[in-house]
Amino acid sequence: MERFYLITGHVSRIELLVPLGVKLVQLRIKDQTEAEVRRQIARARDFCAVEGAQLVVNDYWKHALDLNCSFVHLGQEDMDQADFAALRRAGVRVGLSTHDEAELDRALSHDPAYVALGPVYPTLLKKMKWGPQGLDRVTRWKNMAGDTPLVAIGGLTPERVAGVFAAGADSAAVVTDIQQAQDPEARTRHWIKACA
Ligand SMILES: Cc1ncc(COP(=O)(O)OP(=O)(O)O)c(N)n1
Ligand SMILES: Cc1ncsc1CCOP(=O)(O)O
Ligand SMILES: [Mg+2]
């Protein structure tokens, strides 16, 4: 699995940052109309295909199916509504969020492309009911997930990625550190080097 996993809130960010060498990118759109969501997913799909990057569509699994996307990310609440059989029939890979052991068991029962654990460190992105999980928990998750790749997420920075990889994560995902960087392109290059 790719070690650097970029998560962005708008397709324009994908167009800016993927050409720097990002190979795995999630489009995580919140609070937009359905029409705007579809427009961005289609644009991101076409752009990533040309760039040779893997697009992951967050939340909108129905649009991903309609628009022939190949990878979605779902949280635990998203999973309640999702048609896993339809996704499997269409060959769409699925990454799943987990925060505790019951959620990990549930996620693994769907044979996901990866499981994500977070927040590993405190995150500014959104209010979550889960506190920071810490690096020991990353190691524990890796042991329980077996062959399923593990994505670490939450409060990550280039300075912290060596620690999460050493603890057992296969991939490090980031939103805020790049979204809020003064120079997102320079920060993305920094991340790519740190994850190499
Ligand atoms: C790689 C990755 N891990 C976790 C999440 C969070 O998904 P979810 O819990 O559904 O929360 P939202 O991102 O939808 O707010 C993710 N998107 N990607
Ligand atoms: C959506 C989400 N799920 C677990 S942590 C998190 C926040 C994203 O991380 P960051 O702290 O990089 O914004
Ligand atoms: Mg979600």
TrEMBL record:
| UniProt KW keywords | Magnesium, Metal-binding, Thiamine biosynthesis, Transferase
Provide the GO MF annotations for this entry.
Answer: metal ion binding; thiamine-phosphate diphosphorylase activity
Give one Pfam family, short name only. TMP-TENI
What does the record give as the reaction this protein catalyses? 4-methyl-5-(2-phosphooxyethyl)-thiazole + 4-amino-2-methyl-5-(diphosphooxymethyl)pyrimidine + H(+) = thiamine phosphate + diphosphate; 2-[(2R,5Z)-2-carboxy-4-methylthiazol-5(2H)-ylidene]ethyl phosphate + 4-amino-2-methyl-5-(diphosphooxymethyl)pyrimidine + 2 H(+) = thiamine phosphate + CO2 + diphosphate; 2-(2-carboxy-4-methylthiazol-5-yl)ethyl phosphate + 4-amino-2-methyl-5-(diphosphooxymethyl)pyrimidine + 2 H(+) = thiamine phosphate + CO2 + diphosphate
Entry keyword Magnesium:
yes
One CC-aspect GO term:
cytoplasm
Enzyme Commission numbers on file: 2.5.1.3
What pathway does the annotation place this protein in? Answer: Cofactor biosynthesis; thiamine diphosphate biosynthesis; thiamine phosphate from 4-amino-2-methyl-5-diphosphomethylpyrimidine and 4-methyl-5-(2-phosphoethyl)-thiazole: step 1/1
Q: Which cofactor does it need?
A: Mg(2+)
Which InterPro entries does the entry mention?
Answer: Aldolase_TIM (IPR013785), ThiamineP_synth_sf (IPR036206), ThiamineP_synth_TenI (IPR022998), TMP_synthase (IPR034291)
Query: What does the entry give for GO biological process?
Result: thiamine biosynthetic process; thiamine diphosphate biosynthetic process
Q: Where is the Thiamine phosphate synthase/TenI domain?
A: 10-178
Name the family: Belongs to the thiamine-phosphate synthase family.
Q: What is this protein called?
A: Thiamine-phosphate synthase
Q: What is the lineage of its organism?
A: Bacteria, Pseudomonadati, Pseudomonadota, Alphaproteobacteria, Rhodobacterales
